[in-house]
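Quick note —
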Amino acid sequence: MQKTTFNLILLNSIFMIGLVMSNLFGGKIITVLGFTVAGAIVTYPLTFLSTDIIGEIWGKQEADDCVKIGIIVQLIFLALGYLSLAIPPQEASEALQQSLKIVLNQGLRMTLASLGAFSVSQFLDVFLFHKLKERCNGKKKWLRNNLSTMTSQLVDTMIFITIAFYGVVDNLPAMILGQYVIKLLLALGDTPFFYFFTRKTNQN
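Predicted structure written out below.
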């Protein structure tokens, strides 16, 4: 991937899409490989892959800025959502209004859970990624991509599941384990994409 403004904006946009979609679908509980996990498992890994690519090509500051913007975007998403709901609907849209309330109120808890987990894990991911890059002198791309993501995903999973599903799911530890196992598999699966999109940087 070339180091252009367009590509940087594109990666930031993919990051934001993955983030907002995770807030919307985080409350949907699904089963993957026999594990009970949150629906956000499908979209949230995009955020870690995006910041890893940004960090590899553009550097730590740009990756940190992406995370900071993500926090702002989540807050704006909530504010605009509740502002829109505060406007009285026409009678024909009343059913849609109630559905949107359910989604946004579910989204509120998911967003709070996501904000807590996101703020800690994403900055941790960027920090570990660049520490490992520095320690390995820019080599072993697979190591920094996987180890930083796997470590930060563990922290993210513990914080997110606890806040989002406490009192909703009976066995939180089992859900944390299941979510993390799936995230580990996804983290390993995104390595070829990381190599592909950063192939014009140092290869090792």
